[in-house]
């Protein structure tokens, strides 16, 4: 079982990752978001930042569908994310090891090629 602090620890261990000011968590590499808290929107109600759910960048629609169909207990989406390469992850349902893999993959997809070598060279803080 993972939580927002695990997301924070794993994201900040990645080279050049930065947390921007937010009501939850929001991590970027080269000004591109790779994981953040889910801003839940319900009609007629104010937006609620859900730190028990992470939004992950997944790269493309094929990867998104593979995650949604392959692991529906972990991943979901909403109509507002239709057509976007993003999935929502239920943190309470994922292991920390799996979260590490997902956050690292999201970082790799958003980091410029020049920064990828920093991860491969072991610049990650455990």
Automatic annotation (TrEMBL):
Domain of life per record: Bacteria
InterPro entries: YjbR/MT2646/Rv2570-like (IPR058532)
Pfam families: YjbR (PF04237)
Name listed for the protein in its UniProt record: YjbR protein
Species of the source: Micromonospora phaseoli
